[in-house]
Amino acid sequence: MEGVGWLMAIILGAIAGWIAEQIMKSDMGLIMNIILGIIGAVVMNAILRAVGVIPPGGWIWQCIVAIAGACLLIWGYRLVRGRG
Question: Would you state the torsion angle of the CA atoms of residues 37, 41, 47, 49, taken in this order, to the nearest 10 degrees?
C-alpha cells in the first residue's frame, strides 16, 4: 500500500478485506480479510502500474484500490476452485 505505514496497512487490509468479503458474499475470518486486503492492494497497484495508471496516494484511495484487488482475488480463487 502506497504511502501508509505497516500498522495502517494492516488496518486498511482488514477493512478492505471485510468490505470485499461482503461484496463477494464470501465467509472468511479476520486474518484472511487482512491478508486479502493487503495482497489485494499490492496486486491491484501492480495491475494499475502495468497499464500505465499511477495509483493515487492516501489511505482512502488505497483502501478503494485494496477493495478492488481483494474482490479480484476472491473472484480469481472462485474461478480456479470452481463453485462446487
Answer: 180
Provide the 3-class DSSP secondary structure of residue 84: coil
Torsion of CA 72, 74, 77, 83, to 10 degrees: -120
pTM (2 decimals)? 0.85
Ranges of the chain with pLDDT below 50: none
C-alpha cell at 14: 482488514
Residue pair 39/69 in contact by the 8 Å Cβ criterion: yes
CA distances from 70 to 25, 58 (A): 12, 18
Side chain identity, residue 3: G
